[in-house]
Amino acid sequence: MVKNNNHFTNHDLRRVVIELLEQRGVTLQAIAQVVYDIQHAFYPELTLELCLESVEAVIDKREVQHVLLTGIALDMAAEAGNLPEPLLSILRDDNLLYGVDEVLALGITNVYGSIGLTNFGYLDKQKIGIIGELNSRRQPGRVHTFLDDLVAGVAAAAAARLAHALPDKLSEADLALPPEGRDRGQQAAGGPVGDGTVAGGAVSRDALP
Q1: Residue range 99-130, pLDDT digits in tens
Q2: Three-state secondary structure call for residue 125
């Protein structure tokens, strides 16, 4: 018997979200690997276990669970043909001009502030690990229009959580950027700036990944 929504505990939602992710081919370990890949260069002592712990902490948040449930449900509805046209075709084709999937994922990245947003931009562009796998899986009848961005959002938030928690060996701006982005940001601004701006308040695209 399905529970009334008001009676779902956080533990219930967490279990359902993890099960849905696994059904869609995503494990928390795979997300943790993405976190490790974008952070270990800045923090050599970082372990995959610590990254997994951070991913689990993100998944434990109710607002993150709601975003994941919503996005995965839309992918599944598109697979089943249970959406009206033209939205159905847009989702099935993962139309390049459709940006709602990225917007929804921001509900995850914002949990840990602007670093999460910067991380998400980098992951959305580079498609590291499981994110790239989801983005390239064009199996007949399968739709991952939302899922690849949601996974990127979880990884970005988990990496941001680590950045806030790690010792102050590097600035938060450094921890939020890949090495090449960090170097460009320092050149443009004369040093790292946490919100991606340069001296004088002008926005620098080169300071972002």
Answers
A1: 999 999 999 999 998 999 999 999 999 999 99
A2: helix
Domains in the chain (CATH in brackets) are 9-170 (1.10.3760.10), 177-209 (no CATH)
Angle 106-112-117 from CA coordinates, rounded to 5°? 40
User: Which secondary structure element, helix H or strand E, spans residue 85, and what is its range?
Assistant: none
The DSSP call for residue 170 is: S
The token pair at 91 is 């989702």
Query: Mean pLDDT over all residues of the chain?
Result: 82
120, 105 contact by CB (below 8 A): yes
Concatenated DSSP letters for 43-62? -TT--HHHHHHHHHHHHTSH
- Both structure tokens of 48: 């995959």
Cβ contact 157:112 at 8 Å? yes
Residue 2: DSSP 8-state: P
pTM above 0.85, yes or no: no
Nearest of 95, 188, 191, 99 to residue 143 by alpha carbon: 95
